[in-house]
Design brief:
This protein is an alpha+beta fold. The chain folds into three domains: 190 residues, FAD/NAD(P)-binding domain; 148 residues, no CATH class; 73 residues, D-Amino Acid Oxidase, Chain A, domain 2. Helix content is 36%, strand content 20%. The protein is built from 16 helices and 22 strands. Helix 1 packs parallel to helix 6 and helix 1 runs parallel beside helix 9. The longest helix is centred in the C-terminal third of the chain and has 24 residues. The relative contact order is 0.18.
Length: 506
């Protein structure tokens, strides 16, 4: 795969390109890699607010970055989970919180599994997930998830940030690792007689040549899809959304450390806190509503009907490529696929792709020996994430628009998701089902339980019967006291952000 030169060209920057650059430079520091990121000066930075899952914390640790290095610069806040509003019309389940599971939850989650399992069997127990997780308590109280040194449990959390600013920070950090940067516009991709990428022709008249190429050119996928003709497999038949409109609003002094996802008429709106503003976006399907009507609906939702704040409109396609690594090219980010932003999995997919690529290359002594195995692994991950996202729509109970009615009755879901939903409704053990299908590699059983329980996929209240003393073996008041007691160890979100700012200034 690599010659003695061991050169890599990453085409395209953005967060995905610079994550790839930093991970490769860090992991292959001892291999004498010549890494160059090439970016067109004609492509602007969108810089929308973005959320992450906990693996992003692991990424920063892997490349040696501390929170004080980047959070203040990138308008970042903490994220402990996502609140979903108005996805369900079932009484008591109009809202629920998807937590990031943490070590303290090991003492309270067994009660959630117990109550939820028996409620599916028709026993009248509280099976709503919120009250069983410490991150819900932190979100309610607007506390940051950073524990003091004397707190003996690990905490799991993500971040919200300005993606444009994060890309700039990662560019600077990559430069410290020896990554070169070149501004050039690639006009032609030349292949050799074996169909591999030979070199890139640029508008500036320079030919750029490397042993290996990484495609981070966004939905254009200039290398993998355009030049190497790797097919794109759409999943628009199960995920209808293809558009978004984005607005900033004024920030809170002490923001809650969570993303809020609110179901609207033709999709859903996000609200996530940055230190400088709230990032807001409406993800919708252009097949059900035109862009102007979607913008008007979202302005009304945000109280901006009479505001002159400018909207930005985005288009995207959902699905993935058939091969993420083809010939001498690896695609990352939007070039390889996108499963809409509902659970903020985009950067996790970038990390996973690059880390597994490095593993496969190392295992194969820098050859493509394990390329097929790698491709299968990454595709399974995409498909697993797709099914989890699809499930949100398939189990919704809204009937106010054709969009929601069609999503809730869509029979084109995968056999894997169908089996899991059947198991839930039958009252089977979901953990067993997740393990059998290897779904826990993408979303753990607790996440599936929270999703299905949070949206109220239970027998109706009229179908429930009182439980005996054994059924009521968990005291929810004691669990509440335990979680509130744990929460006493944490600072307010504002206080922690101020501490980060002070640390960054020194």
């Amino acid at each position: 795969m690599f010659s003695e030169k061991k050169s890599i060209v990453i085409l395209g920057g953005g967060t995905a390109g610079w994550i790839a650059a930093n991970l490769i430079a860090t992991n292959w520091e001892d291999k004498g890699m010549d890494i160059t990121l090439v970016e067109s000066p004609d492509i602007g930075i969108i810089g929308v607010g973005e959320g992450s899952t906990p693996p992003l914390k692991n990424f920063f640790e892997a490349i040696g970055v501390q929170e004080s290095d980047w959070m203040e610069r990138c308008d970042a806040t903490y994220k402990v989970g996502i609140t979903f509003r108005d996805w369900s019309t079932k009484p008591g389940f109009e809202e629920y919180f998807h937590p990031f599971m943490c070590q303290p939850d090991q003492f309270s989650v067994p009660a959630f599994f117990h109550n939820s399992f028996l409620r599916r069997k028709g026993i009248d127990l509280d099976g709503h997930p919120n009250k069983f997780f410490i991150t819900w308590e932190l979100a309610k109280q607007r506390l940051a998830p950073v524990p003091p040194p004397n707190f003996p449990f690990e905490m799991n959390y993500g971040y919200h940030f300005n993606s444009g600013l994060l890309g700039q920070f990662l560019q600077e950090w990559a430069a410290k690792r020896g990554v070169k940067y070149k501004q050039a516009t690639v006009t032609e991709v030349r292949l050799d007689d074996k169909g591999f990428i030979d070199y890139l022709e640029t508008q500036e008249g320079e030919d750029i040549k490397a042993d290996f190429y990484i495609d981070s050119t966004g939905f254009r996928s200039q290398l993998l899809q355009q030049a190497l003709k790797v097919p794109f497999e759409s999943c628009e038949d199960v995920l209808f959304n293809d558009s978004a409109v984005v607005f900033p609003t004024e920030p809170d002094e002490n923001p809650t450390p969570q993303t809020i996802s609110t179901a609207l008429k033709y999709g859903w709106g996000w609200k996530l806190p940055l230190t400088s503003r709230f990032g807001n976006g409406y993800v919708y399907s252009s097949k059900y509503v035109d862009d102007d009507e979607a913008e008007r609906e979202f302005r009304e939702h945000l109280g901006l009907l009479d505001s002159d704040v400018e909207a930005r409109r985005l288009k995207f396609k959902v699905g993935r490529v058939r091969e993420h690594w083809a010939k001498n090219c690896l695609a990352v980010g939007l070039s390889q696929g996108f499963i809409e932003p509902l659970e903020a999995t985009a950067l996790d997919m970038v990390q996973e792709t690059v880390v597994r690529f490095i593993e496969a290359a190392n295992k194969g002594d820098m050859s493509d020996k394990f390329r097929d195995e790698f491709n299968q692994r990454i595709s399974r991950r995409f498909d697993g994430v797709r099914d989890y996202i699809v499930c949100h729509y398939r189990i919704n109970t809204r009937t106010d628009t054709d969009y929601w009615r069609d999503a809730g009755t869509n029979e084109k879901i995968s056999s894997s998701l169908r089996e899991l939903l059947t198991a839930w409704i039958k009252g089977d053990n979901i953990t067993d089902q997740c393990e059998r299908q290897n779904l826990d590699a993408y979303f753990p059983p607790v996440s599936w339980n929270c999703l299905l329980a949070g949206k109220g996929i239970y027998p109706t209240q009229e179908q429930l019967r009182p439980g005996n003393e054994q059924a009521k073996s968990y005291d929810l008041d004691k669990i509440d006291q335990y979680l509130k007691g744990c929460a006493l160890n944490f600072k307010s979100h504002r206080e922690q952000l101020d501490a980060i700012r002070k640390s960054a200034a020194t």
